[in-house]
Amino acid sequence: MDVDEAIRGRRSIRKYADKPVPLEIVREVLEAGTWAPSAKNGQQWRFTVLTGPSKNELTTLFHHELEKLSTKIGMAWMG
């Protein structure tokens, strides 16, 4: 695949299927991430993989904190 094909073929996903990602695919994505370039080859990556209830709890916490912050700065949160 050349750059032009990659740019024209890209798409944005805004809705995701509610099914688990196989562990092997998660491992492949993490492995690819470790090969990404970094400033001065510092390789300061940190990965956290959340699954199941912990993912849902973090999402709920994030939305709650975003609502509080939005109220504090006077913006409406549309979550």
Structure description:
By secondary structure, the chain is mostly helical. The chain has a domain at 20-73. 52% of the residues lie in helices and 0% in strands. It has three helices and no strands.
In short:
With about 80 residues, the protein is an all-alpha fold. The chain has helices at about 5-10, 25-35, 50-75. It is extended and about 45 Å long.
Please describe the topology of this protein.
Layout (H helix, E strand, L loop, with lengths): L2 H7 L13 H12 L17 H22 L6
Salient structural properties:
single chain; 79 residues; mainly alpha; 3 helices; extended
Gyration radius (Cα, Å) is: 18 Å
- Put simply, the count of helices is 3
The helix-and-strand class reads mainly alpha
**What is the assembly state of the chains in this entry?**
single chain
How is the main sheet built? none
Distance, first to last CA: 37 Å
Find the count of extended strands (DSSP E, 2+ residues). 0
What is the H-and-E element order?
A: HHH
How would the global form be characterised?
Answer: extended
Mean pLDDT: 84
Q: Give the low-confidence spans.
A: none
User: How much helical structure, as a percent, in the residues?
Assistant: 40-55%
Estimated share of beta-strand residues: under 5%
